[in-house]
Design a protein that fits this description.
The protein is an alpha+beta fold and 361 residues long. It has a domain of 115 residues: hypothetical protein PF0899 fold (2-Layer Sandwich), CATH 3.30.2320. The strands form 5 sheets. Strands 8-17-14-9-11-10 form a 6-stranded mixed β-sheet. Strands 1, 2, 7, 15 and 16 form a 5-stranded mixed β-sheet that branches. β12 and β13 form a beta hairpin. α5 crosses α8. It is globular and about 75 Å long.
């Protein structure tokens, strides 16, 4: 890991790029300028790794102290990259979308992204003797012609929609950064967690609406404000009957704590992947306390909860552009007081039959 003075020594040209960007455009995003390197001023791979580690591990307070009048020359222009790294890290707890998406794509040119989704066909008649296939492998003999086939597709469109939150740090904290820097970090973390929560809510709403893609979504009706183990397992069976592999459970704390947890029988299949909250039977579980998964709250309990079982390799595609862009930001330290963090996201369902909702009455 590098110290801040070593970071300054290795980023002279890149810091000039950052300075030009924020002064010209009044925003910062590392895709356009970064101390980690640009197309015009790339960093050696080893240096980039050292800088990334330093941005993660050195607390924001040290960057702010070094940016003061008695700090290191140019130190302020390390702050934009540090701010973006801290925002990204802080979204990890609340941004569940990468955990249940087949892919999160970003960086494409233009506004919308058209996605071709191969239509699944049954092979072998109504009983699905050979299952359901979007791309059915066909045999060929050695030296023979490799078979070619036309694939029917449906189209979905990713049209990212923008949303933003202010950092709400306040000028007093910025001016007293040497006294209360940890409180500045709290405001950054809090803003990022709200963004992650909102992004998750949007994605869950897209899964429930399942307006795009191929197939027909499955559903199981639960009881009046209660979801049981039997209903979760029924949803697993329904997704499996579509020749998918249900591996993910999205559930509220209310549904989990009411009846699912109390009747759950766990089967441990190995270490839990990073980011998931628990393992339930053969499902990796995610607690999602979002408005998309309930109707309201009454007497401190969520009502009419929805749980979702899906094959995360096939259910949802997420598209993001200019993620965690820092706007109204032309001075790397002073403008922390008024900066706004913006994002753009859209999601489409790919194969709706890889999804089953369990909906309480």
């Amino acid at each position: 890991m590098l110290g801040i003075q070593e970071m300054l020594n290795k980023t002279e040209e890149q810091r000039k790029d950052v300075k030009r960007l924020i002064e010209r455009a009044n925003y910062f995003h590392p895709e356009e300028a970064s101390i980690l390197g640009t197309n015009e001023h790339p960093q050696p791979y080893a240096t980039r790794l050292e800088l990334e580690e330093s941005l993660r591990k050195i607390p924001m307070r040290e960057f702010l102290v070094k940016s003061g009048t008695s700090g290191a020359a140019g130190g302020a222009y390390l702050v934009p990259d540090k701010l973006h790294v801290d925002l990204t890290a802080a979204t990890f707890k609340s941004d569940k979308v990468p955990l249940f998406s087949a892919q999160v794509v970003n960086g494409w040119q233009g506004g919308d992204l058209l996605v071709d989704i191969a239509v699944r066909q049954s092979q072998g008649g109504i009983k699905y003797e050979k299952g359901k296939w979007s791309l059915y492998p066909e045999r060929f003999t050695s030296g023979g012609q490799i078979p070619q086939s036309t694939v029917e597709t449906v189209k979905a469109t990713l049209s990212p929609k923008g949303f933003a939150v202010p950092l709400h740090i306040g000028m007093d904290l910025v001016e007293d950064a040497g006294i209360a820097p940890d409180l500045i970090s709290w405001h950054i973390t809090h803003a990022a967690q709200q963004i992650g929560q909102y992004a998750t809510d949007l994605a869950l709403a897209d899964i429930i609406a399942h307006a795009d893609g191929d197939g027909t979504a499955n559903s199981v009706t639960a009881g009046a404000d209660t979801t049981t183990t039997a209903q979760i397992i029924e949803a697993v069976r329904e997704v499996g009957s579509e020749f998918w592999y249900p591996d993910t459970l999205l559930i509220t704390s209310e549904a989990w704590g009411d009846a699912v947890f109390t009747t759950a029988y766990h089967i441990e299949t190995g270490p839990l992947p990073p980011g998931y909250d628990f393992q339930y039977q053969l499902l990796d579980g995610i607690i999602c306390n979002c408005s998309s998964l309930c109707t309201d709250t009454t007497s401190t309990k969520m009502t009419d909860c929805i749980s979702i079982i899906l094959d995360r390799s096939a259910a949802l595609l997420c598209g993001r552009k200019r993620w965690l862009k820092i706007e109204k930001y032309s001075n790397p330290v002073r403008d922390l007081e008024c900066a706004i963090v913006s994002c753009r996201q859209d999601c489409v369902t790919l194969y709706k039959d890889a999804i089953c909702t369990v909906e309480e009455a």
